[in-house]
Amino acid sequence: MSNFEESGSLDGAIAIIGMAGRFPGANNTDEFWENLYNGVESVKFFKHDELVKMGIDEHLLDNPKFVAADAILDGMDMFDAEFFDYSAREAEIMDPQHRLFLESAWEVLESAGYNSDLYDGRIAVYASANLSGYMIRNLYSNPGLVESLGSFKIMIANGQDFLATKVSYKMNLMGPSVNVNTLCSSSMVAVHYACQSLNNFECDIAMAGGVSFQVSRNEAFFYQEGGIGSADGHCRAFDSKANGTVSGSGLGVVALKRLEDAIADGDYIHAIIKGTGINNDGSSKNSYTAPNVDGQAECIAEAIEMSGVNPETITYIDGHGTGTNLGDPIEIAALTKAFRAYTDKKGFCAIGSAKTNIGHLVNAGGLASVIKTVLSMKHRVIPASLNFEEPNPKIDFVNSPFYVNSKLSKWETEGFPLRAGVSSFGIGGTNTHVILEQAPAAQPSEKSQRPYQLISLSAKTETALEKMTQNLVEHIKKNPDLNLADIAFTQHVGRRSFNHRRIAVCKNLEDLEVKISNSTSGNVISYFQKHKDRPIVFMFPGDAKYIKECGELYRTEERFRNTVDYCADLLLSILGTDIRTLLDSDMTANENRNVRSVAFVTQYSMAKLLQESGLKPESMIGEGTGEYVAACISEVLSLEDALRITASEDKNFSEILSEISLNVPQIPFVSSVSGQWIEDSMATSTDYWLKQRNSSFSAQGLQEILSDDERIFVEIGNGERFLSEAGNSLISVQIENTSPSEAFMECMGKIWVYGAKVDWNKFYEEEKRHRIPLPTYPFERQRYWIEPGARNENKKEQEFPVSDKSEIDEKVLAECIKGNISISVDLDESAKKKQIEAILLFKDKLEKLCLEFQGKIEVSPLLLKGSEKLSGSMDGSEKLSKRPRPDLDIPYVEPSSEVEKIIAEYWKKVLGFEKLGIHDDFFELGGHSLIAAAVAADLSKVFKIQIPMTKLLETTTIASVAEMVETYKGVMLGDGEAAAAEENMEEGTI
């Protein structure tokens, strides 16, 4: 006991900064908690008529051991393919486990307030998926589909090895990307290694999770005594009537970070991981699949030692809790053994099992328990462990530290944080245990010095943007105590910038709610810009009309104030006046050099504020004093020299100019004298600046810089000098009739909303803000699903009469696979029910071999009516629907030439769209290099030409590919020309 501190140590602790999941009966963690709190058992019990409609034969339903229960997951056939830039065809063949895990990975990072494109650290992924039932049952039962797409492409879309790396690729994550597979303990093993990776500084944020879906959710299940499956579809963990668990589908993923970093970065912390343990039982147990007391106890003890906490302060355990007669007593014995090494106290630690609510989620089961426990900590409530009436007689709860928490209970402690343990044990003996602790008290967020905040929203489609806006309004209504500045910060640094953008400048939470509730009002700016970083032009009008309004900006923007202070101190000895006293005054009564100096300082300080807030001008233009500002920003003039010549009188301007250093411009700007881009020789000539002093502004220069309509024009001045000539493209900091602070925020918002790149990290560099959980991206999900193939009644048959399971040997299986033939199961009426279980065993054995033999067989649901056929090679016809052409920026132009039509047909086939225009971009449609390689190979054969892969990746439209085909038609694949063609081939040719 003396080795532990009641408070514990934070050394090596890991913060949980984001959580996401989809569980039976719950589409997210909020719904999951609601079900847990209300004691909902999210198991679906299928009625007789439902099962018959599903295709389950009534002879099976008559068997008393048939269990018609499953903890199902709705919507596993739905996915937002366009968001992740997948073609319709690729989405259809992808394992639903991969699809939904990818969506949840995106959600968990957003919920943590991070955007991987803006985050400087490395983000890792440790993830696990179950064997793809979708690949085996749905895809490989359609041989025509397999032949069309190829087994390699199907493997990439469905294989367990590609889950983590797929997330890293689609989200641009640079940390370790590792798949973890220990079956039932997989997701907890992922958490363990994610924590290790963080503490070893291999990454700075780690996502850890698991997913397991039963594609055939109406799968016939027969209870077997001593097995893991429950006889009645209820999991009764630790109860005397416990006889197994029920299968479930779901996923969970968490975002993790080193605790000290999470605190320093203002992250929202759900809970902390104090320690983890992992080991394997080895061979000291009854069988490979059996659990082991010593192995589990050592794993738990390891986690406790690592956590450094007193086990007497651990007051809840969410156990593995499968509700089996063998596993439950071993689990409690192992926990008791581990705790007894530290304490003799009895009955102080509640225990429960998430499996009583949602069934066994296999690869995702451990993390579901972690999320349940963290939610319990946050609400300080322990949900009831369901279906418990009296303890299993093999469990000695009375003399243990544990009791089953069979009803909803408050979670309270005496002077120490809430702490819990979570266990997860895998078939094969890999054990894991995690010690959790409630999050430390968060320091209040700093009060922002900015009186206005810029709220930004961005989505890939207009409808998603509207839904996103609506979700934020609802969230504000439910959470009226949110900090507006933290909302703005999280939306900026924690969300990606897409084509559809929206901004609102707000002074408080009520203002935000009112404005975005009516997104079509003039208070909200919405804009669609094809995704690109548009160049920014700084424009300096040079007058001082708006100077008297800059006092507010001086008081509210620290970086603006710092620059003004620096300039004012330098000018004090030159002017004899502190220009700071002039910021709130009318400049009309001042000397010209004071007017020029204040105009220069305010415009220069504003330009530096924009630069330091994350904007980089591509070019500039200035009039009068404004050109001095442009020259200073471009480093032609040093700030000190620019201040001297600005403050000089005309009589000594030449003398001062001769004393300063002139440099080659680093940022191009338009000369106000010539109306052309400044040349190095002009910028470094004193004659030029002497001429510029008294010359009038050349309107030609404005037309020169306005010639590129991709530019965003930012007038740093009164909003009138260039506004009328620049038109709607101009973004101006307008000072009149509004607050300068509001104008600055609106300027930043417009620059971003019209498509320029803003470094939001720089924008908040001077502030200490908090990331807070906000609504994540509203995916627009559609159904992508390939149904299992129907049986081919006309195919070759060869009967193998089967009277009992002993006759179903490897020879029969081999013949079935080798010949792609049927197996006849010949049973008379009286033997049917007796043989059902034997046939199901045979069915399972066949299905396990499907993957090994590339899916040449698939076992359909049994329909036992005398002599029936068990198997079903497909007729080879593809049942792949095509989607409407996506909403692209490019107008549809129908293919006209024969070559264009042929190419279009190939594209439609591999991408899954009904029609495609000749200017549609292959990669914008969801194509990638692997698909391109397949298309190139096909087109090479069709047109009898050699298409270099490097060229194909450069020509991304049907029109350009058609043109390339015409170019390469001279390189033939005929017998006499093949050798010559090979010699002329470029590297990378398909």
UniProtKB/TrEMBL annotation:
Keywords: Fatty acid metabolism, Lipid metabolism, Multifunctional enzyme, Phosphopantetheine, Phosphoprotein, Transferase. Residues 11-438 form the Ketosynthase family 3 (KS3) domain. One of its GO terms (molecular function) is fatty acid synthase activity. Residues 894-969 form the Carrier domain. The keyword Ribosomal protein does not apply. GO terms for biological process: fatty acid biosynthetic process. InterPro entries: Ac_transferase_dom_sf, ACP-like_sf, Acyl_transferase_dom, Acyl_Trfase/lysoPLipase, Ketoacyl_synth_C, Ketoacyl_synth_N, PKS_Beta-ketoAc_synthase_dom, PKS_NRPS_Biosynth_Enz. It comes from the Bacteria. PANTHER family: FATTY ACID SYNTHASE, INACTIVE PHENOLPHTHIOCEROL SYNTHESIS POLYKETIDE SYNTHASE TYPE I PKS1-RELATED. This is Beta-ketoacyl synthase.
